[in-house]
Amino acid sequence: MIFDYFFWVVALGTMILGFTAGVIGTTIVIEKQSQLGDTIGHAVYPGIIAAFMIFQTRKTIVLLAGAIVVGLIAFWLIQFIQKHTSFAFESILALVLSSFFSLGLLLYSVVQNNPAFQTVNFAGLKNYIMGQAAYMVRSDVELIIMVCLIVLAIFILFYPKIKITLFDKVFAQSIGINQRRISQLLLLMSLFLIVVGLQAVGAILISSMLVAPATAAKQWTNSYPKMLIISGLIGMVAAFIGTLISTYVSKIATGPMIVIVLSLISLFSILLSPNGWLFSYFKHHKGGNV
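Now predict its structure.
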């Protein structure tokens, strides 16, 4: 049966991740930092391999701790290069992304070919590149739920300051809001979501769960509170549909399927929403004839 216990374990994990990523992703889209999320998503992979090499274990919590440490290093490095050089921000992101992800692949090849690491099964390490949601167990889902609830609680707690910082930086500065701290908090929450989402979606695709729902939601409303709800629901629905299709159709990976569903929803929203291209085209065309 499709709707069995194992389906709901995976579906629950991906849906909660999708909802939370959709909410937090709105801040990334509004701040126009989508590429930063993609960079961090790729950059955490060597942390997983390094943690495996050091501790000789595939325990999820250990591997994800390594990913968090390396993700913070990557974030610090981006800020350091940006502060002390005149390179374009996009160039810095491209440099960090390619360097860290290449390091992860290099470390994986070392693990694969070195007899010292053959005592522990390392095959699952490669799943963190593209994700392997179908093999998530209850403990993995519990970790996702715990992290997502903490992230959502922090977001709700700081919501007034976050909203002001996103939309009126001058006013935020005038009332004493530390914008740098808020930005770091948002990026830290994104990092934790990226890390716990690696097993479900993978390093290459995880940024899509942050960016795509918010991009689609932005086409349907100009209200930020409504955008948060719509983005979260899009992430959750896409996760459920992607999980359902990958369960029903054999040999289809869950993570990529979820991202494809998100992409289709985003494309539909960009074309056919009230703020979308088609409505804008006809409005402009009609106005031009008048």
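The chain has one domain: 5-209.
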